[in-house]
Amino acid sequence: MEDENLESQSQRCKDANIQALLSNKLEVTRQAFIPRLLSCPEQALKKPFKSPHPTAINSSVALKRKLLARRKFVPWGGAALPRHSLSPKLPEPESAPAPPQSPQPGEPPVEPLILWEPEEGQGGKPVEVDAMLCKWLRPHQREGIQFMFECVAGLRQYEGQGCILADDMGLGKTLQGISLLWTLLGNGHEALGGDPIAKRIIIVCPTSLVSNWDSECSKWLKGRVKTLPLCESSREDVTMSIAQFLSPRNYFQVLIVSYETFRIHADKFKGERSCDLLICDEAHRLKNDQTLTNKVKQMRRK
Question: What region holds the Helicase ATP-binding domain (predicted)?
Fold first, then answer.
């Protein structure tokens, strides 16, 4: 009897669906496939939480306080953080400024690196590498900076201009170059061509190293030098940036440009005092003197 009722009910539903489909009045409604799992009465959702443990606290308010308590991280072995009081915080009395921190005991003093000293009667200050860089320099890097400074400042007698720093990979050539450019930007003397020795410095490197040079300058000089990296810029932005760097009221001190970008705009750097110091990274790309890239060596420098 029950089977006949189910069959008749199923047949009526089937006929009703066919009739609704033919009359374009079919409506789709979702019903739970497993009522006990998918359907949940509204009253059950609004019931207060009750722990299944037999000895647990029955008070829902006490449980809410524990669950809503804000947890704070306490380091291993440390004491628990004190609870904040709800009373307003009183202003603290003004105190005298703390004295400057003295150097930590046991730290070796930084040996200064003096690159040049004026002769008696000339006056002026000696050219010295900044102490914030000296403490990181190794002996071979000190020799390299001294060598480059003497070549750039014209203190060595040889037929040529500039120099080549041919240290192996990983010996800190980038730090030596940054130390040299920062020294030339902040030091000078009439006997060396003016004060400062350099005002505009150009770093030419492969495209993949433009951002690396910019980050290294910020890292070692702590944001004191004003760099202008030309990386991932449109041609209009590159043209405007180069014009800004070469203008008399230039704000930037160091232009970081790739060999490809320089090859396109090489003619713009032929003016007087367009560059006081030129640093070429991966300089083996200049071995062919017939290429347009090699024009970087023909720029007028101080």
Answer: 154-302
